[in-house]
Amino acid sequence: MKHLIEPNDLSLLETEEILSLAQSIMKEPKDFAQVCRGKLMANLFYEPSTRTRFSFEAAMLRLGGNVMNLSDISTSSHTKGETMGDTIKTISSYSDLIVMRHPKENTPKKSTNHSFVPIINAGDGANHHPTQTLTDLLTIKDIKGSIGNMTIAFCGDLLYGRTVHSLVKALLRYENMKFVFVSPEELRVPDYIKESIDKSLYKEVNSLEEVIDEIDILYVTRVQKERFDSIEEYEKLKDTYIITPKKLEKAKKNMIIMHPLPRVNEIHTEVDQDNRAVYFDQVKYGMYVRMALITSFIGDSPC
Ligand code: NCD
Fold first, then answer.
1. Backbone Cα Rg of the chain
2. Average pLDDT, the chain
3. For a substitution probing ligand 1, which of 43, 132, 134, 266 has the most ligand atoms within 8 Å of its CB?
4. Per-residue pLDDT tens digits for 26-85
5. Best mutation site among 238, 261, 266 for ligand 1, i.e. most ligand atoms within 8 A of its Cβ?
6. Residue 151 bridge partners (DSSP)
7. Cα dist from 133 to 25, 55, 112, 248, 268, whole Å
8. Is-contact 55 111, C-beta < 8 A?
9. What is the share, in percent, of the chain residues with pLDDT greater than 70?
10. Measured between alpha carbons, how far is 131 from 118 in angstroms, rounded to an integer?
11. Mind spelling out the 3-state secondary structure of the chain?
12. Residue 101 catalytic?
């Protein structure tokens, strides 16, 4: 049985097939309106979410399927002391697919040992977020025409930002990708990520101004307040980078600005008017790519 826990659980070919399927769904959504008829997906979110949970739900409903949601854990038997393994055995007895977000790293992976149905990781702690990666890849492919031969700068909280960890991993499989990691010292990208990249293909800097004219994609992230041990440390770092129209003056005309959202302060709302800002397009791509993913996991053939 196939699960999606980290981006490379899908081969490059499978990833490309999902992106192409998403583009077909975007063109002719009606053809896919029944592919999950009679199927039931369980959304288990043990951490807050707006986009990921709603986009999964919207995706399944648009495919003709149904959704069960656990969003308030105080109402589940978890509070009576039930183990995650028993919860998963139970919920996978009722559903065809489980989507799980959890604050503790590797919980979705461990849950696969207890599940009778595929599990999709919707974010585990600071570890991975493979469906945001598919969203990001589709955004790049659809807007830029292809993926590869480009420089991407990740800016913000690169230590705890799981969307960064997953996207770097996925982009390493494409040709001639260069990476710039822009963060304060305290929020540097983890060593295990750097070790997976050839030294000639990345650099780490503190200042965005220093590199802004070199990059094709600016991927901004929120400082992940919930992962800090000390609120003082968070307060000290949270406004390190605030992207404003002024800071973008020297950027390439065809650079795109991405952000997985939610945004707090790191991109000024004035930037939303800049036609290089694609973070709200990303939101929509997220629903289509999840429609493609669910279809490839449990859907019937389109009509
Ligand atoms: C991200 C997440 O949850 O990791 N958001 C998302 O899923 N779209 C990023 C974040 O929370 O900052």
1. 19
2. 96
3. 132
4. 999 999 999 999 999 999 999 989 999 999 999 999 999 999 998 777 777 777 889 999
5. 261
6. 178
7. 18, 14, 20, 25, 24
8. no
9. 100
10. 14
11. CCCECCHHHCCHHHHHHHHHHHHHHHHCHHHHCCCCCCCEEEEEECCCCCHHHHHHHHHHHHCCCEEEEECCHHHCHHHHCCCHHHHHHHHHHHCCEEEEEECCCCHHHHHCCCCCCCEEEEEECCCECHHHHHHHHHHHHHHHCCCCCEEEEEECCCCCCHHHHHHHHHHCCCCCEEEEEECCHHHCCCHHHHHCCCHHHEEEECCCCCCHHHCCEEEECCCCHHHCCCHHHHHHHCCCCCECCHHHCCCCCCCEEECCCCCCCCECHHHHHCCCECHHHHHHHHHHHHHHHHHHHHCCCCC
12. yes
Residue 299 near residue 63 (C-beta atoms within 8 A): yes
Q: Which atom of ligand 1 is nearest to the CA of 224?
A: 12
Ligand 1-lining residues (CB < 6 angstroms)? 51-52, 123, 129, 132, 162-163, 222, 224, 260-262
Of the candidates 102, 104, 225, 95, the residue with the CA atom closest to the CA atom of residue 156 = 225
- Ligand 1 atom with least separation from CA of 51: 8
Task: Go through 99-108 and write b for each residue having 16 or more CB atoms within 10 A of its CB, e for each that does not.
Answer: bbbbeeeebb
Q: What CA–CA distance (Å, rounded) separates 93 from 138?
A: 32
The question of whether 52 is a catalytic residue gets the answer yes
> Is 0.90 topped by the overall pTM?
yes
Task: Answer yes or no: 51 catalytic.
Answer: yes
Contact 170, 15 (CB under 8 A): yes
